[in-house]
Amino acid sequence: MNKPSPQQCSHVVWIVPALDFGGVETVCQESAPMLRRRGVRVTVINLGTEGRAARALAAQGTTVHTLDGSIRPYSLNTIRRIRAVLRAARPSLVHCRVVEANWLGGLAALSLGIPFVVEEVGVPRGRSWLGNWLRRMLYARADRVISVSRTTQAWFEERGYFSGPDGRTRGVVLSNPVDHTVYDRRYAAPESPSPRSMQPFPADRGAVVIGTVCRLAEEKGIDVLLAAASILRAKLDALDTHEQIEIRIVGDGPLRNALESQARALKGSPVRVVWAGYAETVADWLCTFDIFVLPSRTEGTSRSLLEAMASGVACVGTAVGDTPGLLADGRGVCVGSEDPAALAVALRSLSIDPDRRRSLASRAARFVREQYSPDAYIQHVISLYDRVVT
Quick one: pLDDT band at residue 168, thresholds 50, 70, 90? Predict the structure, then answer.
């Protein structure tokens, strides 16, 4: 194990709004043991209730404090409870991850004089003037402001969020990593079973499987995907073909009941919707997809999209965040956000063209393998932490 010098960050506290299912949770689970092996101890403050990721982190040996508290951005009681944990932990640095955790954790760290960084995963949507003022005030005092995509960083920089009282810019881009070996092994060995033989349950005979992996929340645009599915249904009915499409939705979240109600209109049609729920091992699902779709309204650098690209699946995404750049140069197909007609056209085009799917998937997998190494990510994180505390 690499022993930190007195000037290096030896203990970081991460503050997160929730620890259940999602990209931030996955990055936390994968990064904590890698940091520990390099001499950086991680403690996590979870503002929400205990979830799957909280239990997984604890099982790894990471200390997790679950507050079961309010994640409203102005909760003084939650700030007080965060301060109590920070006083006892005495960390070198606080790393606040996403939205309310940035406000609550940042204010707690600032009040105690502890160096802190905040992290944004996408462009804010629908924030009040008070929330925007608080963000601007806090980010000007943060030691660094991390964006997980260049698009997000550019949005904040254009509005002056990253300039502090000393005139220095505090913005830095740190994109989410993907361990491509988790996915490559399913395709690399000739003796490995085919993806179709490994699927959790069989698709209808001959069906093209379109899948997505996400939290079922408004910003992920699953309602747009279901609207596109209705358009596909009308198209297939008009053509009077025997084509079948199965849409697999892997994940859970607050909108599941409403989305399931929306999908009932497709019952009995050539377009079938399957609700897979939460999956411990996303790779087992990705290898069953012919097409991966990310219909988001807002994104930074989508972890789910990178995982799908790494697993050799043809990808369709919407033009938000870094998605257009990830899918450029023949690595995927990009359509406008909240445009179910365009999404239906893209999905239909790929569903009948397996050669094009293979070409897109091959380029995408090679790109992720070369650009998104977890080891490089961890080294960037450690370097950032060390620069802040020295």
Answer: low
CA dihedral 47, 52, 57, 63 (to 10 degrees): 40
Residue pointed to by tokens 């395709």: 187
Indicate the SS3 state at residue 80. Answer: helix
**Residue 231 φ/ψ, nearest 5 degrees:** -65, -40
3-state SS class at 334: strand
Q: What is the largest CA-CA distance in the chain?
A: 72
Determine the average pLDDT of the residues in 213-227.
Answer: 95
DSSP letter at 304? Answer: H
Q: Are 343 and 295 in contact (CB under 8 A)?
A: yes
Name 202's Cβ contacts closer than 8 Å, sequence gap at least 6: none
First to last CA, the chain: 21
Q: Which two tokens stand for residue 297?
A: 């309204």
Please give the helix or strand (H or E) that residue 318 lies within, else none: strand 314-318
Residue 189 phi/psi, 5° resolution?
-85, 125
pTM beyond 0.85: no
**What pLDDT score was predicted for residue 4?**
47
CA-wise closest residue to 365 among 311, 285, 293, 289: 311
Residue 145, CA distances (Å) to 44, 136, 162, 378 in order = 19, 11, 7, 17
CA distance 159 to 240: 52
Query: Measuring CA to CA, how many Å separate 347 from each of 103, 160, 300, 320, 357?
Result: 39, 39, 23, 18, 11
Contact 109, 96 (CB under 8 A): yes
Mapping DSSP to helix (H, G, I), strand (E, B) and coil, where does residue 282 land? helix
pLDDT digits (tens, 9 = 90+) for 276-295: 998 878 888 998 999 999 99
Q: How far apart are CA 3 and CA 46, in angstroms?
A: 27
Amino acid 80: pLDDT: 94
